[in-house]
Amino acid sequence: MGKILDALAKDNLCIIPATEKRNPEHQKACEISYSLIEQLNEQLISENQRLFNEVVEAMEAESCLEAESRFIRGFCLGARIFMEVMEERENFLLDDESQE
């Protein structure tokens, strides 16, 4: 995939000086999730804590890769839709003969 699209998917492309990442509902869900992870982590003994933390990190990594893949696929689909629309643009134009 192109460098710009990859940078955009990985949030490494700065196009606006400040962007809001989460809406209030998403922020609340994140806070609840992190709170529950902290509570569970505190209740585990050390060996289980290590394993639990590794599971959480692996799930976060998988989630990020899935999000990048979905973004790129969605972006490509949007571009394909745009191309299809542009191919049909002539159907909306009157030729010179029909205007007379």
What is the typical, i.e. mean, pLDDT?
Answer: 84
Round the Cα radius of gyration to an integer and report it. Answer: 23 Å
| Residue windows where pLDDT falls under 50 for at least 5 positions | none
Kindly, what is the distance between the CA atoms of the first and last residues, rounded to a whole number of angstroms? 48 Å
Discrete helix count? 3
The helix/strand order is: HHH
Query: How many strands, which pairing sense, and closed or not: the largest β-sheet?
Result: none
Instruction: Tell the overall outline.
Output: elongated
**Assembly level:** single chain
Helical fraction: 55-70%
**What is the number of E strands?**
0
Quick overview:
With 100 residues, this protein is an all-alpha fold.
Can you describe this structure?
The protein has 100 residues and is mainly alpha-helical. It has a domain at 1-12 and 46-91. Helices cover 69% and strands 0% of the residues. The relative contact order is 0.08. The mean pLDDT is 84.
